[in-house]
Amino acid sequence: MTGDARPGLPRRREPDLGDLTAFTVDFAGLVTSWPDSAARLFGQPAEAVVGQDVRDVLLTGPGQRELARRALAEVAAGRAWTETAAGGRLGGGRFAMRWEPLRPPGACGAMVLLRLPWPQPRPGWLGDAAFVVGGTLDLGQTAAEIAEIAVPAFADAAAVYVAEHLLTADEAAASRAGQGMAARRIAGRLADGGPTDGGPTDGGPADAGSLIPAGEVIIFDPGTPGFQAMTTGQPLLFDRLDQQSAERASRRPGGSRAAARYTSYLAIPMTARGTVVGCLMLGRTTASPPFGPDELPHAEELASRAAVRIDNARLYHRERRTARALQQGLLPRVPDAPPGLEIAARYLTVGSNVVGGDWHDVIALPGGRAAIVVGDAMGHGPEAAAAMAQLRSAAHVLADLELPPRQILHRLDRMVAEIAMAPFATCICAVTGPVVDPAVRAVQAGLDGPDGGVWSCSASRAGHPPPVVILPGGEARLLDLPAGLPLGLGEESFEETMIGLPAGATLALYTDGLVESRTRPIDDGLADLCEALSAALAAPGAPLDAACEAVTRRLAMHGEDDITLVLARVRL
What single DSSP character describes residue 446? Predict the structure, then answer.
């Protein structure tokens, strides 16, 4: 990222021409040209520099003579070389350096391009973290932004680790005495690609993906810097990798050579709300001055800011995972329908909620019958979901006992009265199956025909919207069943109605979110529903799943509540 275009945030300052310069050296490292831009940037005139060894006039910091030697060897072989460096006569700033062979190769030497990258380690540079980090609750992106703040402003490498037990269901499984600490690397960043076993590379920060890949879970053994930082809550300054980390690096292509370049490290715990949520690992190469005690406050401030944002993203990730698991555990993936019945269902939550108070269930019963239950506990979010979970489980058990719909609702009514989170709920229950005795094919609700219904359906509702029957050919009829009171209001009894369903007919059960809103009266919504069902099921054998999807999409645009639609069609 080279900037931040988010509204309301200040854009990062891009390097201007005053941050750039280029000069040339021969293959011995002697400066052959020194322009005004270099004189202005480093405060040394050309007459004092030209003819001097670049390692005496510029790259004078610890490890920088070796850097220049390696760079000269690469350009002599016709290859470019990129590195960052700081200290010595480069001052406190961190410079990006690129050594390019002059053309023709082997003729003259190299052009050295220097750029002063943003941000510089100056007082207040950590203020950028307040604007750049934490604009999203995505855990990976938040960690990547933290690593980007640290590199190259403060370090040549950064890795963000989060305690693994905080990212999984078993949050109590923290480190125990004598055992290691499991941590997941969420993000990593390098100032440059670094060498590989196949020779130098010029890849840039993306090469961190192969050397310190995000998503890897490792075990910090007792005594390692990562373990100490996360268990003691104190930062640790060290100058070499522990044996465990060195062995891990050696198993990656170019890992050993890359690790050899780093000679100074910091392990800083990330603590939020009194809990160590992970650690921030920083490293510097020989081209940069080693970390000093005076830099610990800067590193700790960055880790502190990072910890809060990481913990916010982690908590959001946990709550969303819990909600999704709850939703997936409560809503059946495949309806348990008997052979003579075809089922399709759709469930949509309102707004950003993952689960709500709606539920539906299909329970296969002996004799080829099925109980279909659709309900709606008052409210949204976790409270409504918790009430819904209890009601759905109870309804499933009651239906499985082959109780008639009116008795199922009566027992649910008594149960809702005892659930504090659900003052009331609406529900409709229908038990349908093939008619065995033609003498009982007496059909109510205006669905009688020359031969009556081939399937019977007993239905009862408690304050719930009425069902719709779609006859073969697409005619939709709203069934005027006795409404009843919502569950939880102490209804003494619920009426039960028997209807007949001809072959190819479809029964539609739904929740009020499909047909009612503040801007649409329920009568208009019911009319729209019948029209949508007629259009979707007009063609003989129209795919039921596609019809269910089309109807919910058409009516959902007006919805302000969770939406459930269940279609049950008698097979031809």
Answer: T
CA–CA dist 313, 134 (Å, integer): 8
CATH number of 335-570: 3.60.40.10
Residue with token string 């703040």? 149
pTM of the model: 0.52
Q: Around 94, how many Cα atoms within 13 Å sit in the side-chain half-sphere?
A: 24
Residue 195 one-letter amino acid:
P
Q: In 415-428, which positions are buried (b, 16+ CB within 10 angstroms) versus exposed (e)?
A: bbeebebbbbbbbb
Fold match between domain 18-34+51-115 and domain 128-322? yes
Right CATH number for 128-322 from 3.40.50.2000, 3.30.450.40, 3.40.50.970, 3.40.50.1820?
Answer: 3.30.450.40
Token pair of 411 as six digits = 């027992």
Spatial CA neighbour of 222 closest among 231, 213, 214: 231
Distances (CA, A) of 268 to 130, 164, 308: 19, 17, 14
- Alpha-carbon span 410 to 493, nearest angstrom: 6
Which residues, 6 or more positions from 568, have their beta carbon under 8 angstroms from its beta carbon?
A: 337, 341, 342, 343, 362, 370, 372, 432, 506, 507, 508, 509
Count CA within 13 A, CB hemisphere, residue 200.
19
Would you say residue 193 has pLDDT above 70?
Answer: no
Relative orientation angle of helices 522-536 and 544-556, to the nearest 10 degrees: 150
**355, 392 contact by CB (below 8 A):** no
Q: What is 465-522 written as a DSSP string?
A: PPPEEE-TTS-EEE------PPBTS--S----EEEEE-TT-EEEEE-GGGT-BTTB-H
Phi and psi angles of residue 255, each rounded to the nearest 5 degrees, phi first: -65, -45
Dist. CA 338–CA 456, nearest whole Å: 14
Write the pLDDT tens digit of every residue in 290-339.
888 888 888 888 888 888 888 888 787 777 776 666 666 666 556 677 88
pLDDT at 207: 60
DSSP, collapsed to helix, strand or coil, labels residue 90 as helix
Q: Strand pairing partners for 564?
A: 347
pLDDT of residue 199: 37
Spatial contact of 119 and 272, defined as CB atoms under 8 Å apart: no
Residue 18 above 50 pLDDT? no
Q: Per the omega criterion (within 30 degrees of 0), is the bond before 152 cis?
A: yes
Average model confidence (pLDDT) across the chain: 79
Both tokens of residue 257?
């050579």
